[in-house]
Design goal:
Length: 156
Amino acid sequence: MASTIRDQLKDVVGETIKTLHKLSTEASQKAQDSIEDFIASPGKYLAPAMTLHTSMLTRLNITCMAQLDDLFKTSFQYSDIQELKEDLMQAEEEWDTMLSDIDKKLQGDDTGLVITEGSQAPIDITLVEASSSREVTLADYIGKDSVLLILLRHSL
């Protein structure tokens, strides 16, 4: 028997919510326990979340969050789907709050380069790749198929 859109949403989005909550809780706890240990390997706590939404969309055979909203609309007459959407929004808010809290802990008297959303950064800026801890530049990634750049700021 083929599963319905409602069933798929409940399974896939429900699993995403649980995973995002778990990752958020673990990252938040680690940052509270020792911000130094957290910033020593942020990819361990943050990298799994980077692919979470992509995986959810792929499993639902869609490509963007707008299409997810459309899927929710097709089953929104069901209270469990309404709750599921609310739970997803809450899990995303929890994640954003966790990131904001960690950022507040990491803020200091850093006088380095300030990069804001929409601004341009020098191509030779030195960054640390979270997955390998090696120093890279933006130039290292020019021409790659896709690049997900998440800037985490911390002082050592």
